[in-house]
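::Encoded backbone::
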Amino acid sequence: MVDDNSFDDGSLSSLGIPRDENNRHFNCPEIGQQRLINTTFFIVDIIPDVKTKYGTDRMLVKIKFRMEDPEADARKFFTGSGEIKYILQRVKEMNKFPRRVTLRAIGNRYFLE
């Protein structure tokens, strides 16, 4: 909704329409979760409850290897790990992204340190 006292220059941005949280995506290359094992990186954002061919309760995770580079090294990966999803959902609720983590794996179990 437009505030009657605000300036409307005719652009979409002047309308102040918030982003649709149910229709988000990350515009960056995908990387396999397996390639990140024993790697330290920054988690920038998440999209929970994503439906993929591997299931309906997946999480899309946006990462960066260097925080000083705006978007050049951004990547995304999907995870179904309950441990990772739980931790990242709590971090999002605390509004504490970006967060530096290391991805570890024992067998088929993935987790963050």
The chain has a mean pLDDT of 87. Helices lie at 82-93. DSSP finds one helix and five strands in the chain.
